[in-house]
Specification:
- The chain is an alpha+beta fold and 152 residues long.
- It has a single domain, classed as Thiol Ester Dehydrase, Chain A (Roll), CATH 3.10.129.10.
- 22% of the residues lie in helices and 29% in strands.
- The longest helix is centred in the first third of the chain and has 16 residues.
- It is globular, with a radius of gyration of 16 Å.
- The mean pLDDT is 96.
Length: 152
C-alpha cells in the first residue's frame, strides 16, 4: 500500500474520479519502446480534462469566469514502464479542498491493471490580472456545494 499524496479532511466528501483510456503512440516512446518520462504530464492532463469536463470545472468553465488554475507543483512516481501499443488507463482523482487550489492525484495502469505510474498536481487559482486568488470564486464555491451535497 502506498502512502497517500493528500491527507484526508474530516467530514469531506469522497474524492471525484474519472478514468480515461488511450493507446501509447509511437511518438511517446524512446528507442527501447518505453514511454519517455516527459510524456507523463500529458497523460495527467488527459485525466484532468476528462474529470473537469464531466463535473463542470473544465478549462473553458474557468476561462468563462476569468479564472485560471496553473500548476504550482507536480510529482510522479514511476513503478513499471508502459510500452508502445499498450493501453494506458489514466485515473484522475480530485481531492476535496476548501482552499483556492485543486489537488489532483493520478493512477496510471497498464492493460493488465497493474499500476505503472502515480503522481499528483497542485493548481492554484489566479484572476484575470494573474494575481493569486486567496478566496474561492463563486462558481467554484457552487461546485463544492454540489459536490458536498452528493449532486455530482
Amino acid at each position: 500500500m502506498r502512502k497517500p499524496y493528500f491527507k484526508g479532511i474530516d467530514g469531506a466528501p469522497e474524492p471525484l474520479r474519472a478514468t480515461f483510456k488511450r493507446k501509447v503512440r509511437f511518438e511517446e516512446v524512446d528507442p527501447l519502446g518505453i514511454v519517455w518520462h516527459g510524456r507523463y504530464p500529458s497523460y495527467f492532463e488527459d485525466g484532468r480534462v476528462t474529470l473537469g469536463h464531466l463535473n463542470g470545472i473544465g478549462y473553458l468553465d474557468f476561462r468563462e469566469q476569468n479564472v485560471a488554475a496553473p500548476i504550482k507543483q507536480m510529482h510522479m512516481d514511476y513503478i513499471k514502464p508502459l510500452y508502445y501499443g499498450d493501453t494506458a488507463h489514466i485515473e484522475a482523482i480530485l481531492h476535496w479542498n476548501e482552499a483556492a487550489r485543486l489537488n489532483y492525484e493520478f493512477i496510471i495502469r497498464n492493460d493488465t491493471g497493474e499500476i505503472t505510474t502515480t503522481g499528483y498536481t497542485v493548481q492554484l487559482f489566479i484572476d484575470s490580472n494573474q494575481e493569486l486568488m486567496m478566496f474561492l470564486p463563486d462558481f467554484y464555491m457552487n461546485f463544492l456545494q454540489r459536490w458536498k451535497a452528493g449532486k455530482l
